[in-house]
Amino acid sequence: MDLSHFLGALTPANLAFALFGVVAGTVIGSIPGLTATMAVAVLVPLTFVLPPESALILLGAIYTGAIYGGAYAAILLNTPGTPSAIATTFDGYPMARKGQADLAISVACYASVTGGLVGALSLLFLAPPLSRIALAFGPVEYFWLSVFGLSLIASLSSGNLVKGLAGGALGMLLSCVGIAEISSDVRLTGGSRTLVGGIEVVAALIGLYCIPVLIEMVSTPARHLEPASDVRGIRFRDGALVAWRSKLNLLRSSVIGTVVGILPGAGGSVAGLVAYSEARRTAKPGQRFGEGEPDGVMATEAANNATVGGGFVPTLVLGIPGTPPDAVILGALMVQGVRTGPALFSQSGSIVYTFIYGLLIATCLMLPVGLLIGRYAYRSILHFPKAVLVPTVGFMTIIGTYAIRNSLSDVAIMIGLGTLGWVLGRFGYAASPIVLGLILGPIAEQGFVQAWTIGAATDELGAMFFGRPISLAIIAFTLLSVAWPAVRARRSAIRPDATS
Amino acid sequence: MNTPRTFPSSLAAVLGAVALGLAGTVIAEVPEKQVEYVIPFGPGGESDISARLQQPYFKEKFGQDMVITYKPGGGGALGWSQLNDMNADGHSIMGINLPHIIIQPAQKEVGYTTEDITAIHMFHYTPDAIVVNASSPYETLADLVEDAETNPGKVTLSGSGKATANHLAQIRFDEMAGIETTYVPFKGTGAAVTALLGNQVKAEWGYTTVGATQGDQVRLLAVAMEERHPLFPDVPTFTELGYDMVGGAYRGIAVPSGADEATRTRWADMIAEINADEKFRQQMLDGGFAMLDVTYEGMEAFMQERSEEYLKTARDAGLVK
Hints:
The complex is a heterodimer.
Chain A: H1 3-9, H2 12-30, H3 36-47, H4 52-77, H5 88-97, H6 101-136, H7 139-156, H8 161-175, E1 178-179, E2 186-187, H9 201-219, H10 236-245, H11 247-261, H12 267-281, H13 294-318, H14 324-335, H15 342-347, H16 349-383, H17 386-405, H18 408-426, H19 431-457, H20 461-466, H21 469-494
Antiparallel strand pairs in A: 1-2
Chain B: H1 7-27, E1 35-39, H2 46-62, E2 66-70, H3 77-81, E3 92-98, H4 100-107, E4 118-133, H5 141-150, E5 156-160, H6 165-177, E6 182-186, H7 188-197, E7 203-207, H8 208-214, E8 218-223, E9 248-255, H9 261-276, H10 278-286, E10 290-294, H11 296-316
Parallel strand pairs in B: 1-2, 1-3, 5-6, 5-7
Antiparallel strand pairs in B: 3-9, 4-7, 4-8, 4-9, 4-10
């Protein structure tokens, strides 16, 4: 870890790769349906002719740009550009509706950069201990973590608890369609070949979020988003001030994102959710989460960009991909002859450290790039007439959905779920609980089945589920987040003058 | 122009153009343009890695790009059920895996049957291996077998999926050794290895590739090969230890059923040529893979043999009827 590695990351070529990667990633991530995984996978062959560290820097920059880019569509179109940005819609879109989309985009940028830096720095200094924490998470912990996530759905739908839970249950039911991953049963397909592959998360995401928005856009002649006033630029200064005032939130969310990122299979969506919930739980009086609170956007964006650095911990240290883009990057490294896993830091230390510095530089570059691209994204969505916007977005959603698995089935499912989502929306059912149920359902099911199998085999069922320290901590958090709204309501009832 | 007199001549012109076009397709040799290599799994797995290792050699030997795309779902079933819908002009191929394409259709309605798959070449396999954590008390296979005999059902082994190569290996070995172990399915080799490294389970039914990627963190107790793997000269084969187990997960490629004989033999030759390249073989071996050379001619006999083996094991375990 000496200066030469840092300088290695600063060569003009590597800087160019970092810049190109961040720009390309941000643009790709902002298009609903085009995920970070896709962005990375498409550009992998390009890296075969590059030296390993440049390849890694390029792929890492694309990855982090794409995770940030997902925020644009989340804020402006209520459609997460990538699954990691789901929680950004909670407050991002309400902010846009209130005419504060420009502020939302700039704080999202500051938050993403902060999260990305924390994640990358953790990777640099704390990779070995973090990887040990990752290994301590077994099937039981994953089960309780997804129960925690599902409980967050409930508490986030505090106005419509029953509907939120119903949505979550529907999502979990949908996740059962197709061939179960670990029991190889075929479920709920009704013999249909379309459904045998299951319901792909990104297709459901686009359908449930985007189609209702498009239908709504078509149904009223009013403009999609009104700017608060005729403010030029996107409020860099205001955004910076708001971000600075919430530095504790930013830091906490980044740490949450890093920790969730190191858990293989958890992903940016879970990180965003947990960070959002914590931010909400520790909200100051007067803050209205869910109605356009900048802290909500900052929490989720910091967390999901922190998963980039965090996800590289198990990838590089253990040779086990932390997130899907990491799996692609691992494959690319293997072709280059770089042996990831325990041997990596000792044998190819220079490659790793040059890469990490490159990732840090790319994250810093995301600040000017993100703010600039954000301004154009904001302007175009704001000023394009609906007649142009709706068909363009609709077209991109179809392309994006098809591109996931080159499967028309996915497009059919997307449109079907989208229509269902619109109908449900009219009855007060939000899309988020359904999508979160879809994501968390398999994690919960697998964790439960595996934990049960191990526990039953070793006759330690009770100790398995309730005797492990990390599990107990997660259970405690779950109970806390479920009980908190009730406690808070009690408190404010006792002291009515304390509420605003 | 649509008068009855000119219609026959314009029709002839159209038919002539179509005929020329078709003739052109038949005469041209694959690959004429970039080829698509569909992997029915997500990126990063063994199928992806072996395909990516082939990619540069394909470009070098045949001058065209090999574009790798993913179509995950149902443990491969989604991709295989859509294989015959792909373009049959010889520029689209799909990765196939044994035992998946034999076991899946036998178990349930998955949208394809084993006969639907036109296998062209099996170019490698990842030999089954029992992997333990470096800190494990098991030093040899005999230790594990002893523990399983004294504590039936308590020895937990992770593996990728159910009714997969890992699972079938566990069933066969338990039968041969007369023991009872518990198989814990995980989503993919990565998750199974994580569970092993975290000591959630006592051992893993994995492959030699796990030993290659994890290095000193793990120990292989035995490998299911005819001879010891060059990467692990100290690890005995199952045969040496008295268990007749040779095999693993086999991987190869298939073309859509609409592809003609010429295309099929062409692809078999192309893959065989890449497979014969010394540098390629070395790269694969360094990754922990084991090479195989089953071409189009020998495919039927190979599949028949494996079919019998897999289906018998699966039937005995009650996985298929």
